[in-house]
Write a structure and sequence with these properties.
Helix 3 runs antiparallel to helix 6, helix 6 crosses helix 8 and helix 8 packs antiparallel against helix 9. A hairpin with a 2-residue loop joins strand 1 and strand 2. About 10% of the residues have low confidence. The strands form 15 sheets. The protein has a six-stranded antiparallel beta sheet with strand order 1-2-3-4-6-5, covered by helices on one side. The protein has ten helices and 60 strands. Helix content is about 15%, strand content about 40%.
Length: about 900
């Protein structure tokens, strides 16, 4: 091995700063390029590799060639040299993790694996085009940056280490990490091509085989070739075939599986012959290139993969010209008749100029119009309507704060939610009519008989289309926390909906009827559900939109789910994924990254800076000293979460605190910042309970409170004596409970009711008051109560939730349903009185489980969970005759 270099050591113009890691091929350091004034990474290799001058010369040539590639998916190599007899490579400094580290923590969703693989193939194609073969493609040599850019590492190192003659068959034995545990795959032999195993001559197609092993592992969660020893693994590469991918991941379509098998052909002549072909095949599967170009066609934009070849570009220009003439006629023809067996047409719907946060698309039942939500430059979130044969979308004035639109059966009116009310409005414009109060935005459905169903914590509510007092339409199961996202079946009496629960295992798609409050479970899923008269249910699984055959008369599923689209965006709350379908075969959905970004704002709403990289933030809370953020991060499938720590003093550097194969999250800090109380279902299966986690001892959480209820922490008093938590019990609505921390740990209710929810509680800084949320008035409002329990007072009056205190207790902040940050100055504590709340600023906040924002002790800055693509939204995808594209 290389002798470690100390900080301050100079390698030419480079000064070593710190050691980053080490492996079989040397040690990696952070260094400073004094000449160009930039941070770089330096890999110092074993001196033994420089003894053969010819090999060293060839390595230097190949490393320099790799550096000259300047491709976004290849690590940029700046320099090579020798220090004390040891070769070294100078490259760009990356922030993120290797694919190996990524896979050790979680398996990526299918859409994510395809995205990573597409980038990997593009990088290999660029290298192969220059005559460079990697020879050592494996997860350890693939890096995922914080912005999810794939980088191929270590071009040239495999050639430098390559033995000759009789040792050629064991090319990588010298570089593997030897393990002796039975059943453990040893080192990297599992990623070699058959020609490498045999010691035969290799070319660029050896990288294609190794690429196939990596893609297989990302999709299946296991190695393609494995044995109890290196020899058995090598034999498997030569003689055996990997297990079927569908055995471990039912969401993998046949086309994707064929790409993998085509890469893993034993004979190089039978594999893909170029990495560009792999990239094209993967881009065609996803329907979206990694970095797509968009070409306007009668107001739509092509989402075909970006290509740079002149012939193909010319073909597209010709196609665009033809479509420009024919598109209007085709659109009108489609609206009147959908040809059986006709081809699916995939188009892209451009968003209105100078808008952001667009999405929540709904297609009218007749397929002629779309309605969606978009925020204008002056922060008005409005409904927009666009006809299929129109070039532009028009806003619907008076729909401020709109959320989750849905159509009337005659395609003339739109229902939507805003300001704790359910509204309807004519799609051609006019005055919106309030129908009733609502407690949340849980989706709506409109029947031909004039009845509207909408989501609610107690169960689906039912109200006439003319308005009135809602009545309960479904009876919530004790283990569920709400019924959401209803959708009527063709008979107009039966409907589907999501039974939402506190745990992944508790979520179910249910079927109900207007004739009874009883419902039945159809199957398990964590998604809103839509029925297409073509005979399919549409829902989201692991980020992909899938369709499964469904008999609406018999209420029976058949067959297996088939992938329709990838990368479906979550609307940000309660699994309301962004897709819709008409009665005559028009499908619409929005693709993109569902991640969010933590961003600092001042009191005026001015954006200050982002924290860390975009990620799947499920909840977060600021530490008492304001230097750290405890966050719950969802895994690639969006089902499980873990608690991580972001260090604000180091740019949001991330470290993991929980490691159990279960869901942990909803962290609350202790007053001294040394502990967290979190939720976990590790010991109770379907139930979540409270655990104590020492911040300086990750992975050592201990059960704090057990029982048959679901418990979620909310606040820890400044004196450390009490913890407030939300408890879910079958016989009551969720309420606020308190747990004394004096050793007895006997929990008792603080706020509990059979009729309404009380939650999101927060101790005042002096511990004398508790702010909380309650929907007792028919919508969520913020209240304050003395502690111990006594007098109480309302703070908000127009809807509000997520109360937080300023550090001196002189101000309360909260957020409205449409994303406004409000502040109420406290006039007196006893009796408790506040001034009229004032709006500080409008946000594009991403609501979800847990608090979606944090505030500094002095109330000057707000950390907001913001959709990562809010300022650059993806176009809306429209598919005509969508069932023609299903893989039967």
């Amino acid at each position: 091995m290389v002798q470690s270099l100390s900080s301050g050591t100079r390698l030419g113009r480079y000064e070593i700063r710190s050691k980053l890691g080490e492996g079989g091929m040397g040690e990696v350091y952070r260094a400073r390029d004094e000449k160009l004034n930039r941070e770089v990474a330096i890999k110092v290799l074993p001196a033994s590799l420089s003894q053969d001058e010819d090999r060293l010369h060839r390595f230097e040539q190949e490393a320099q060639a790799a550096g000259a590639l300047n491709h976004p998916n290849i690590l940029a190599v700046y320099d090579v040299g020798v220090h004390d007899g040891s070769p070294y490579v100078v490259s760009e400094l990356l922030e993120g993790e290797t694919l190996r580290e990524f896979l050790e923590q979680r398996r990526p969703a299918t859409r994510k694996a395809v995205d990573f693989a597409t980038q990997l193939a593009q990088g290999l194609a660029a290298a192969h085009d220059k005559g460079i073969v990697h020879r050592d493609i494996k997860p350890d040599n693939i890096f995922i940056t914080k912005d999810e850019r794939v980088k191929i590492l270590d071009f040239g190192l495999a050639k430098l280490a390559q033995p000759t003659g009789e040792d050629a068959a064991q090319t990588e034995i010298a570089t593997r990490k030897v393990r002796t545990d039975p059943g453990t795959v040893m080192g990297t032999v599992g990623y070699m091509s058959p020609e490498q195993v045999r010691g035969s001559a290799v070319d660029h197609r050896t990288d294609i085989f190794s690429f196939g092993t990596v893609l297989y592992e990302m999709l299946s969660g296991r190695r393609a070739f494995r044995g109890d020893s290196a020899i058995e693994t090598l034999n498997a590469i030569l003689k055996e075939e990997p297990a079927e991918l569908s055995a471990s991941n039912q969401n993998i379509g046949p086309s994707l599986e064929r790409v993998v098998w085509h890469c893993l052909e034993k004979s190089p002549d039978r594999r893909f012959q170029a990495a560009t072909d792999i990239a094209f095949a993967l881009e065609s599967l996803s329907g979206v290139a990694t970095q797509p170009t968009q070409e306007t066609v009668i107001g739509f934009k092509s989402i075909s993969p970006a290509r740079t070849f002149g012939r193909e570009r010319l073909v597209w220009l010709v196609v665009c010209a033809i479509l420009l003439v024919a598109a209007s006629v085709l659109a009108i023809a489609f609206l009147t008749r959908t040809k059986p067996g006709g081809a699916a047409a995939r188009l892209s719907l451009p968003l209105p100029e100078q808008t952001r946060g667009a999405g929540q698309i709904a297609v009218s039942p007749d397929g002629s119009r779309f309605v969606f939500v978009a925020t204008t430059a002056d922060n008005k979130r409005l409904l927009w309507v666009r006809s299929l044969d129109s070039l532009t979308a028009q806003p619907l004035p008076g729909t401020d704060g709109a959320f989750a639109p849905f159509w009337s059966p005659d395609s003339r009116q739109v229902g939507y939610f805003a300001g704790s009310k359910l509204y309807k409005i004519d799609a051609a414009g006019g005055r919106a009519q309030a129908l009733c109060d609502v407690r949340e935005y849980g989706g709506g459905a409109w029947s031909r008989a004039g009845q509207i169903l909408f989501g609610d914590p107690d169960g689906l509510q039912r109200v006439p289309e003319t308005g009135g007092t809602p009545v309960l339409a479904t009876k919530r199961d004790p283990n569920e926390e709400a019924h959401r996202w209803p959708y009527f079946l063709p008979d107009g009496r039966h409907f589907l909906f999501l039974g939402d629960a506190a745990t992944t295992e508790g979520h179910h798609i249910r079927v109900g009827s207007l004739d009874s409050a009883d419902t039945q479970v159809l199957f398990s899923a964590v998604s809103r559900i839509v029925y297409s008269p073509a005979g399919y249910l549409l829902f989201v699984s692991q980020g992909a939109l899938v369709a499964q055959a469904f008999d609406a008369g018999k209420l029976k599923l058949s067959g297996e789910p088939m992938t329709v689209g990838e990368h479906i965006i979550d609307m940000g709350e309660n699994h309301g994924f962004d897709f819709s379908v008409s009665d005559n075969g028009v499908l619409a959905y929005q693709t993109g990254n569902s991640n969010s970004q933590l961003v600092w704002f001042d009191r005026s709403g001015k954006k200050l800076e982002a924290v860390g990289a975009p990620d799947s933030y499920a909840s977060f809370v600021l530490s008492p000293d304001g230097q750290r953020v405890a966050v719950g991060l969802l895994d690639a499938d969006g089902r499980q979460s873990d608690v991580w720590l972001l260090d604000l003093s180091h740019g949001g550097a991330k470290s993991r605190l929980t490691f159990a194969p279960s869901s942990e999250g909803d962290a609350v800090w202790s007053p001294d910042g040394t502990q967290l109380v979190i939720t976990s279902n590790r010991d109770a299966g379907a139930h979540v309970h409270l655990y104590i986690l020492p911040v300086n001892r990750p992975g050592e959480e201990k059960l704090l409170l057990n029982g048959d209820a679901e418990d979620v922490p909310m606040s820890w008093s400044a004196d450390g004596q009490y913890i407030l938590f939300e408890r879910f019990l079958p016989a009551t609505r969720p309420g606020v409970w308190m747990l004394p921390m004096n050793g007895q740990q006997e929990a008792r209710p603080l706020l509990q009711s059979k009729d309404f929810t009380q939650d999101l509680a927060a101790f005042s800084p002096n511990g004398h008051l508790v702010a909380y949320n309650s929907d007792e008035s028919g919508r969520g409002e913020v209240y304050v109560q003395t502690f111990p329990p006594g007098a109480r007072s309302a703070v908000s009056s127009g809807g509000g939730a997520f109360p937080k205190w300023r550090g001196d207790g002189k101000e309360i902040f909260y957020v409205t349903n449409d994303g406004k940050v409000m502040a109420a100055q406290i006039k007196s504590e006893s009796p408790f009185q506040t001034d009229v709340p004032q709006q500080l600023f409008q946000t594009n906040i991403r609501f979800g489980p847990g608090f979606p924002y944090a505030v500094t002790r002095d109330g000057s800055r707000f950390l907001i969970n913001t959709p990562a693509e809010a300022n650059n939204p993806a176009p809306l995808t429209v598919v005509l005759n969508w069932t023609a594209g299903l893989k039967k």
